[in-house]
Amino acid sequence: MARAVVFDVGNVLYDWNPRFLYERLIGDDRALDAFLRDVATKEWHFQHDAGRPFAETSAELAAAHPQHAALIAAWGPRFGEQLGGMLPGMRELVCELEAAGVPLYAITNFSGEFWPSFRDREADVFDRFDDIVVSGDELLTKPDPAIYRLALERFGLRAEDTLFVDDREDNVAGAQSVGMGAVVFTDAATLRGDLARYGILAAPAL
Question: Which contiguous run of DSSP H or E holds residue 95?
Fold first, then answer.
């Protein structure tokens, strides 16, 4: 039976979508789609999660796409605008876990530059967590098994005493490879069932 829950942040706790920011900056839907598909892609952004400075990545991308330099420059300073509110039911679930005395942790692929302001913005949620490992600070990213081992050591947890929750199957597989219990997140109701199956919360009423 798992005794601690380790969350992913983006698309598990919070809705992350670069469109939230760029639909405010690009009025034409086709141009917006093209910018996010061909220029400021999630693959490009993953460099930030891995620890590369935004000053470097943005300069490289702007050199390749000078016509979009101003839009590219907005990515870092306004990254928080890419993150919406908590996903439905997740605030209530986090509060319920805390009230039940379940230790809460997180492992997030997130830029070390962008994380502090977002963490401060959502302090009412993240203050409930015992610790959070941020990939950009560690220069390790999920699903590399090394980041899970580092997190377990830092959290003072045994792998078998944890349940890891992530929206990506490869990240879940990475956690399982080091012995953690792990489930793929789809929505709060399904996760509540998973938590009951692992003996962490009472089974939902039928």
Answer: helix 90-99
Domain 4-15+85-197: CATH class, spelled out: alpha beta
Percent of the chain with pLDDT over 90: 96
> How would you classify the pairing of strands 131-134 and 162-166?
unpaired
Enumerate the domain spans of the chain: 4-15+85-197, 17-82
Residue 100 is encoded by which pair of tokens?
């039940």
- Burial of residue 55, with CB atoms counted within 10 A of its CB: 0-12 exposed, 13-18 middle, 19 or more buried: exposed
Instruction: For residue 136, name the pLDDT band (cuts at 50, 70, 90).
Output: very high
| Tokens linked to 183 | 């489930």
Alpha-carbon distance of 187 to 206, in angstroms, equals: 18
Residue with tokens 């509540």: 192
- Whether the bond into 143 is cis, omega within 30 of 0: yes
Cα-Cα end-to-end distance for the chain = 23
